[in-house]
Amino acid sequence: MLKDLKNRTASFLGPLLAATKKGRTPYYITIGALLISTLLVYLNPLSVPAFLLFLLSVSLVYVMPLKRVFRIIAAAIIALVLVPVIGIRNIFYLEVIFQISIFAALALGLNIVVGFTGLLNMGYIAFYAVGAYLWAFFGSQQPFLLYSIPGTVPPGTPFLLNPNFFFLFLFLGAAVTAVVGILLGLPVLRVRGDYLAIVTLGFGELIRVLANNLDKPINLTNGPQGITRIQRPTIPTFVLDSWNTIFGPIVGRPIAEGEFYNLFFYVLALIVIMIVIFTVIRLDDSRIGRAWTAIREDELAASAMGIPVVRYKLAAFAVAASFAGVMGVLFASSRIFVNPESFDFMQSIAVLSMVILGGLGSIPGAILGAAVVVILNLQILQGLSLWLSSLRQSDAVIPLINFPFSSISAQLDPAKYQRMLFGLILILMMIYRPEGLIPAKRRRREMLAKKKEIELEITDTKPAIESEAEHGAA
User: Fold this and answer.
1) Which of residues 49, 65, 89 is at a domain's end?
2) How many helices and strands (H and E) does the chain possess?
């Protein structure tokens, strides 16, 4: 019955979908959807459905069969005009997109280790923590508080570095975490499979516990209280004035320096993610990427063919760690505060979920996985929780059964079931679409080949089972 319904739906929607991909129709649909959704978000800055519709319209630039030049121009207009304008009207939108950029870079880095090389890393968030604490320590007053009581800052304590050293630490964060990745890989890569996952999990917890306890005898990390008053780079006055001159009338008001930092970090994260995407694409289509694929498929065969397996594994760990380190520096500066709880084990699981959800080895899949997880967490689940909380404080009742919303327990807030929802999504993905939402071409071919092999085995064994059943009945 379900198969018949699926066939009927495909026969009905097939011609309609095919018509949307002919001639100039994809361009009209993409431009129209972007204009309508942008207008809706502009007029209703607090509307979550309007923002989700805008994000869906943005995805059409990738989905629709458009020319490459048009894609680039449309992406530039969206990133540099539309998103800043609607983001300034509601700063939370810039926060969502900034979080998507952060986790997309982390997912792309982990995708190199898990998707390209086939190494299960359960402690990837540790590299993110190393980058964050690197700038948190040198970009704050912490170097002068090594022998102070944790949580106290004597008056007049200076900062160690000028805030503009932040840009240098973006590169230092990548270099330092790459070295940490190599140091981790040297002893860890002696083990494989589940043992590798356990060892990397231990490394992730080790970094978090160190950050939590290195407040004595020398106060390096300020312990569980975290490091605060982390510096941000200075923004020239003429940049802020130019923005207010050009975009102020469109937004409807001039913005202050504090709001402009949200836009600044969004643009910076966008630049970093573009560099990360370019790097991953070049690596995937290189000799290194083919070596990683060979290691993933059969490590023993790759070694027999002359591929230096350990060297390429270390390279995968180093490259992935460098991406996390850069984003860690960016995260610390944007938040002006870091503490060990920001880098717990569940963060590693969340990034791994993004990679699996999008598709192992898939570059656009990792970005889509990050977007889906962040939007579910920050927009949908939190939005539903706030909506339910407002109903709980009113006299509203559930229709038909007249059950008051005020009697619904706070334990039923959707935001508290984030991990359960992600677990359910992963289970359904593994059952119905194990290759991911946007699978890599190579992995899609592998999954189709395995599916055909299973179908052939079932076809070949079915007559034998039937004959054995007949003999048994006789």
Assistant:
1) 89
2) 19, 4
Q: Do 110 and 78 sit in the same domain of this protein? A: no
Residue 135 and residue 173 in contact, taking contact as beta carbons nearer than 8 Å: yes
Among 58, 89, 120, identify where a domain stops: 89
Domain membership flag for residue 122: yes
CA distance 457 to 90: 56
Cα 283 from Cα 290, distance rounded (Å): 9
Task: Kindly list the averaged pLDDT for each block of 10 residues, start to end, along the chain of length 474.
Answer: 46 52 80 90 85 87 86 89 86 88 91 88 90 93 84 81 92 93 83 82 89 87 88 87 83 82 90 91 87 86 87 90 94 91 86 87 88 82 76 70 69 76 82 81 68 66 58 55
Domains identified in the chain, total number:
2
Q: Residues for the chain: how many in total? A: 474
User: What distance in Å separates the CA atoms of residue 418 and residue 353, rounded to the nearest whole number?
Assistant: 12
Give the residue numbers spanning the domain of 259. Answer: 92-377+431-460
Please answer whether residues 58 and 78 qualify as being in contact, where contact means their C-beta atoms are separated by less than 8 angstroms: yes
Strand partners, 228: 337
Tell me the sheet residues that pair with 398: 403
**249 lies in a domain?**
yes
What pTM, to 2 d.p., does this model score? 0.86
